[in-house]
Amino acid sequence: MTAPLRLGTRGSALAMAQSGHVAEALTAATGRPVELVEVVTAGDRSTAPVHRLGVGVFVSALRDALTAREIDFAVHSYKDLPTAGAPGLHIAAVPLRQDPRDALIARDGRTLAELPPGARVGTGALRRIAQLHALGLQLEVTPIRGNIDTRLGRVLGPDADLDAVVLARAGLARIGRTDAITETLDPMLMLPAPAQGALAVECRIDDHDLVELLGVLDHAPSRAAVVAERALLATLEAGCSAPVAAYGELAEGDAGEEIYLRGAVISPDGTRDLRLSRTGTPADAAEIGKALAAELLELGADSILGQEGHAGPGTQQFGSTE
Ligand SMILES: NCc1[nH]cc(CCC(=O)O)c1CC(=O)O
User: What is the pLDDT of residues 70-91, one digit of tens each?
Assistant: First the structure.
């Protein structure tokens, strides 16, 4: 009997669902038993707004537990990770990515186009606020926070006070609530956050056997797309709450497999909206992201990011609550 591997997880429905899923997949692929160990983060204990809690509250407790050897590996929502890696830790796998698109959950089954002027739409992410404003639909965009169920309750609950909310489709899928979706938003209108829908499976870099074991969960095309999107974000020196969107799609091109990367930087009020794309091979994923970021910077992305949401070099902002 081998001792079970300890998978550290937050206690939220989303974290438990994605950790449980990875645990099952690992056991199925390797026969190794996995035990879930709940790690309580400062972000779970506090009701203060996320931006006041400081840097990386949701990720750092898991990383501390890894470094302290209290757990063997952890599963993160990739989009919530700072662009700088953690010393001594390694992302051993990026499993098959879920649908990266955002979803609208609106009253009366409405789509975005069916919302009347003045409709109240809730979202916490600057990237979504900016793109909703850029649609020019006179939507009243309201900042919200809380876990997925809390956010759904703002539209569907007995005390509903909003006409709609925008959430990641992947998160809803993981907690079994895609039934609430009234429209999956086309990336043409709402480009997703870099790495949205992807997971990062992290362990200690010196835990060589585990690095190798976890490698069975890695899905190379998902990793390549995420590497390109995150390279764009890192080159812009923006954090995960900045109004930066990126989506790398893999497709079969004339020269074999290609990444088609789209990136956007939008001012929070939606009046400045830079969108560009670039194509390359998956082996050059990071270079594609960097080059696309450089093009966006040439067009003035830094002045948009300077207005708001720019975390600056070496720092990270966290808008996440799940
Ligand atoms: N910002 C919080 C967050 N972090 C990860 C997800 C779930 C989707 C994912 O794993 O990318 C969500 C919820 C949301 O954005 O609606």
Answer: 999 999 999 999 999 999 999 9
- The confidence score (pLDDT) of residue 54 equals 42
Q: How far is CA 161 from CA 130, 133, 148, 200, in A?
A: 21, 20, 16, 35
Please say if 254 is a catalytic residue.
no
- Pocket of ligand 1 contains residue 196 by CB under 6 Å: yes
Helix, strand, coil abundance in the chain, percent, nearest 5: 40, 25, 40
Structural domains for the chain: 5-96+198-218 (3.40.190.10), 102-184 (3.40.190.10), 226-307 (3.30.160.40)
Does residue 77's CB lie within 6 angstroms of at least one atom of ligand 1?
Answer: yes
Using CB atoms within 10 A of its CB, is residue 10 exposed (0-12), middle (13-18) or buried (19+)? buried
9, 10, 14, best to mutate for ligand 1 pocket (most atoms within 8 Å of CB): 14
User: Cβ distance 77 to 9 under 8 Å?
Assistant: no
**ipTM of the modeled complex:** 0.96
How many residues in total does the chain contain? 322
